[in-house]
Design goal:
single chain; 271 residues; alpha/beta; 6-stranded mixed β-sheet; 22% strand
Length: 271
């Protein structure tokens, strides 16, 4: 398929001393895709997102965002993307409205537009009922919603999300998912990392899996499923394939990266 990618990397690599955290990654994400980026702990997911968003310089390789070289056009790229990092990086001594207005101004919105969008986002995220409350006094879930609001206040063309649903209750998660689906419907691209594979399976149309710093799979969910099934005997140990059921994303993920410890391994004091 021919397209001008929203996100493209060539041989993207990041070293920390002798450790190669990301090793020659070649990503290609089409415009309008809800793209899931998966991997075990320590696989290189957060390091990759930090490089894609300009928070961390690569050791080598090339990154293009919306057709722009991130190394030579960092400001132009950052104006068109939104980021919810794992640590959120909020200003705790501001109110929610103050923080969102500040974020909007930093993205170039005029004061009136920033304030109007901040009020609309606070209402949408159900954060408007305590206008004087400082961000530091927000619960973890409230801070997640505020971080998401700050990332979308300028209408980004690409949204990068690092574990956006961690610590978020079911009601808030539903609100966030509805907003993300609306963004996709309007042509935005979303790049998501999450350990909650059920959420990724429901939301994402395309995926990439990184393992030990290297990209080991990339494509649509159906392409990854077909690739795993082609390499798997018709009858699996638990009979799930022989019943005609499709492999879940969790099963696909475990077969690609390996299941870790043997199923029969036990702790001595619990056996």
């Amino acid at each position: 398929m021919d397209f001008a990618p929203s996100i493209s990397t060539q041989s993207l690599t990041r070293r920390f001393g002798e450790l190669i955290a990301v090793d020659g990654v070649n990503l290609r994400v089409a415009p309008g895709q809800f793209f899931g980026f998966l991997g075990p702990n320590g696989a290189g997911k957060s390091t990759t997102i930090k490089m894609l968003t300009g928070l961390l310089a690569p050791s080598s390789g090339r990154i293009e965002i919306l057709g722009l070289d991130l190394n030579t056009h960092p400001a132009d790229v950052k104006r068109q993307i939104g980021v919810v990092p794992e640590g959120m990086a909020l200003f705790g001594r501001l109110t929610g409205a103050e923080f969102l207005s500040f974020a909007g101004r930093m993205y170039g919105l005029d004061r009136e537009t920033a304030a109007k969008r901040a009020a609309e986002l606070l209402d949408f995220m159900q954060l408007a009922d305590q206008p004087k409350k400082l961000v530091t006094d927000y619960s973890h879930g409230m801070q997640k919603k505020l971080a998401m609001a700050a990332a979308v206040i300028h209408g980004p063309k690409i949204l990068f999300l690092d574990e956006p649903f961690e610590g978020v209750d079911a009601i808030a998660a539903g609100t966030l998912k509805a907003m993300l689906q609306r963004m996709i419907a309007r042509g935005a691209t979303i790049f998501l990392t999450s350990h909650v594979l059920e959420i990724v399976e429901r939301l994402c149309s395309h995926l990439a899996i990184i393992h030990q710093g290297r990209l080991v799979a990339q494509g649509s969910l159906e392409e990854l499923r077909a690739g795993v099934e082609a390499q798997t005997p018709a009858a699996s140990d638990n009979g799930s394939q022989s019943s005609g059921e499709k492999l879940t994303l969790e099963e696909i993920f475990l077969r690609i990266v390996g299941g870790g410890r043997p199923a029969d391994q036990e702790l001595s004091w619990l056996s």
